[in-house]
Amino acid sequence: MEVIWKQRLHECGILAVLTIDRVEDAIPAAEALLRGGIFGIELTLRTTSALDALRTICEKVPEMLVGAGTVITPQQVVEVAQAGADFAVSPGLNIKVLEAAEEADLPFFPGIMSPSDIETALEYGHKLLKYFPAETAGGLSHLEAMATPYKHLGISFIPLGGLNKENCGNYLSHPLISAIGGSWIAPQKLIQSKSWDIIEENAREASLIMKQARSKHAATS
Ligand code: 3PG
Q1: By CB distance 3.0 to 4.6 Å, which of 37, 44, 129, 209 could disulfide with 70?
Q2: What percent of the chain has pLDDT over 70?
Q3: CA dihedral 22, 23, 24, 28 (to 10 degrees)
Q4: What pTM, to 2 d.p., does this model score?
Q5: Quick one: average pLDDT of 180-184?
Q6: Topology of 2-220 in CATH?
Q7: Active-site residue, 194 included
Q8: Nearest by Cα to 12 from 4, 22, 20
């Protein structure tokens, strides 16, 4: 299952982190991202509208790969699975949440930032992991050093936290990375102000950076 997800996330490349205050903004935000070439989101469960926004995008924007973010309780696992999420992520590693995701048959990528976290995730069968908060934890060099003892097991990462248009290319061209994510493409304020054109432009720019980073990597490897 994780091999398929590694591939799906690699194809998607970038997850736009969305925090949505009004359900009415869910579809326009998702459509602006699609127009700009971003096909994956992490919709955070940090607002009262989050679950309805998630359900709406799952139902009405089928081209979007929809991840639920900030999933930190077993109850939230059940709720996002019922809302139709394709997958879920958490900032940290909570065994009860992992067990609930397995029970709900929901693809789940827990957050890690230490070798101990990686080992716990591996113990529970997880090899596709969110690296959070990537930049303040030490960035790509920290991830490379931390992952070295586990590389032969086929682990792969989704870095989030502090990524932006300046630093995402480095991550995207690295073989340990399946996809990256960040809120800079569609920040909460731009969603609140319904700035769909700016979100579309940010998405287009990010998508171009991804293509350039990956073609550079392909040319040098
Ligand atoms: C997340 O919710 O996954 C992160 O908070 C995204 O981090 P960023 O806002 O630094 O992109």
Answers
A1: 44
A2: 98
A3: 100
A4: 0.95
A5: 98
A6: TIM Barrel (3.20.20)
A7: no
A8: 4
